[in-house]
Structures are given as C-alpha cells and as structure tokens.
Amino acid sequence: MISILTYPRIHVTLLDMSSNGYRRNGGLGFFVNSPSLLIMITKSKVSQVNDHRHRKHGFDTQILLDWLNDLIKKLNIQEKFTISISGKTLSHFGFGCSTSIRMASIEGISLLLGLKLSHQEMIHLSRRGGTSGIGVHGYFKGGLIFDIGHAASENSTHLPSRSKEFKQNYPLLFNKIDLPNWEVGLLIPKNLEPISHDNEKIFFEKNCPISSEAVYQTTYHAVFGVCAAIKSKNKEHFHKAIMNIQKQEWKKKEWELYPSLPVLKNKLYEFGTKAVGISSLGPSLYFFADDIESIITKFQKPNLKKQCDILKVSFQNTGRKVICQKEI
Fold first, then answer.
1. Angle 119-126/134-141 helices, nearest 10 degrees?
2. Exposure winner among 4, 144, 210, 312, fewest CB in 10 A?
3. pTM greater than the 0.85 cutoff
C-alpha cells in the first residue's frame, strides 16, 4: 500500500485569457498546509474508487475510475488498483483536488510497480494542467508557483482545465518561490454549491477573450506585486497586490459567479482583514490579517458560523508526502 498526503493549492489568478498573446493562460498560485487529503493506493482484483469524505460528488468517482482504467491501458499493465480518498479538502471549491488525487494515484501506482516515472511523465498521464500548471507543478514542489501556460498555437481555445485534460502539452513552470512564514486564513462557504462542469465551460465561453490591457495589468500585479513581495518579504505590498488582482477584469468575473460572497468578504474586512481573494472559480476565499485568530473568533457568531467554516493555515513550501509504504 502507498499512502500520499497532499496539500491544497490556492489559485490566485489566471494570466493571459486574451486572444492575441504569445501564450495562453498561465497562472499564479500557492500551497497551504491544510485541509489535506490522504490518498491510499492498493492493488486489488478490480479497479475501484472509494471516496470517504463527508462532502463529495458522485460523478467525480466515475470520472476518476474511467481515468484509472484508461491509465492502466496506457501503462500496459495487468494489475488493478483501489484508490481510497479521505481528508477534509473539498472538490470543486478552489483547492485543486482533482489534480492532486490523480497525481497521487499515478505516483502511488509507479511506486507500487517500480515504474520510475519522471515528474513530466506523471503530469502527462494525469491529463491535468490543460489551463493552469499550478496544481501539477506544485504537487511536487509546494511554494508559490508561477507558470507561463501554453504556446498560443497549442492551446488557442480558452476552457477550464477539466475540458482540456486530453491535451498532449502541459504548461511551463517559470518559477517556484519559497514562501515566508506567514499565516493564512481560509473561508469555506457551507451553503454554496460550486458551479458545475457545464457552467464552467459556459463561463469561459462567455467571458473569453479578455482585453490585452487587462492581461498586462494582471501580469504586472502578479509579477511586480505578488512575486516581488514574496521574494522581499514585504507584507504590505503583498496584501496590496492581492487586493489589486481582485479588481482586474478576469478576477472580477470570477467573483460575480457568487453574488453572496461579497457579503462574507466585507465581513472579513470589517473584522480587520488586510486582503481577501477568491481561489480559482471559488467559492472558497483566502485572506491575510495581523491577527487571524481574532477574526476566526468573530466569525463564531451564530449567523456567520452557519454560513461558513473558517480556519487558520500556513504556507506550504514542500510538495506531497509519501507517508506509508508497505506490503499488504
């Protein structure tokens, strides 16, 4: 049995969603240490997927099982496997669950069979990273991940990652930056359902391409704001850059998917938060403050507590952990 502990990624923003740039997509994001997932891979008589999380989506199980059976064919192996998923990271809430589950499954199978697959081979076999490479690269590395997407000719249509998983290319990692020892807050809505796969596609089709000027603005705040602030450990500039990214054309459209989220965002600011962002297409929020514990305490009021879970986490500078390897 192989057990692999994976960490959630926070997707700060996609970058080039225009139609006339050098490349497509690209993105900026970082990893935090909680809530984590434990993926266990074992040999079995038939392939199966067991999702033990309290909140899950049944269609994901079948998609993952279909992918697993196809993976076995691609690897030209005879063995079957059971993938068991436990932990508190929710799928489709902006944490990159689908990517981490697939990457852990491939790595677990590789370790069980002694295949010695390279990181690039695992990324390719996962079929993830069609839009953003933060999840596939950060799975191994953690930290702040800056990727520069795909060549425009290779990836001309703007679609969510789940709609591009059969692409043969994957995004280029431009840089991985170690994160400082700063606390992070997460706010996970209880009463909001994430948008469906079909609605994700509609969202991209409706809102792409965006203007070149918007791409330049977002990239400026990502590079000279977020990346520079992390390298120089400048919290003030980091907070300002995160806030400015939320005002850009693409990110504003993501916020508009959930009309009730600005109410929670405003409460965070009212209670002393310095910067709030929405991770990927949401609905989870991440935030930064001088005293996150005091903000969590204020959210224990009954009317707020029933709306969301809120927790303090930390930046994660290392990738997944293989925590158990034994014969059964």
1. 140
2. 312
3. yes
CB atoms closer than 10 angstroms to residue 147: 27
CB count in 10 Å sphere of residue 30: 26
Spell out the per-residue pLDDT of the chain, length 328, in tens: 999 999 999 999 999 999 888 888 899 999 999 999 999 999 999 999 999 998 776 668 999 999 999 999 999 999 999 999 999 999 999 999 999 999 999 999 999 999 999 999 999 999 998 788 999 999 999 999 999 988 887 545 655 555 455 455 677 888 999 999 999 999 999 989 888 888 999 999 999 999 999 999 999 999 999 999 999 999 999 999 999 999 999 999 999 999 999 999 999 999 999 999 999 999 999 999 999 999 999 999 999 999 999 999 999 999 999 987 765 4
Strand 144-147 with 173-177, pairing: antiparallel
Distance, in Å, from the CA atom of 171 to the CA atom of 188, rounded to the nearest integer, reads 28
Gap between the Cα atoms of 194 and 110, Å rounded: 32
Q: Which of 169, 160, 143 lies closest to 29 in space, CA to CA?
A: 143
CA angle 108, 11, 307 (to 5 degrees): 100
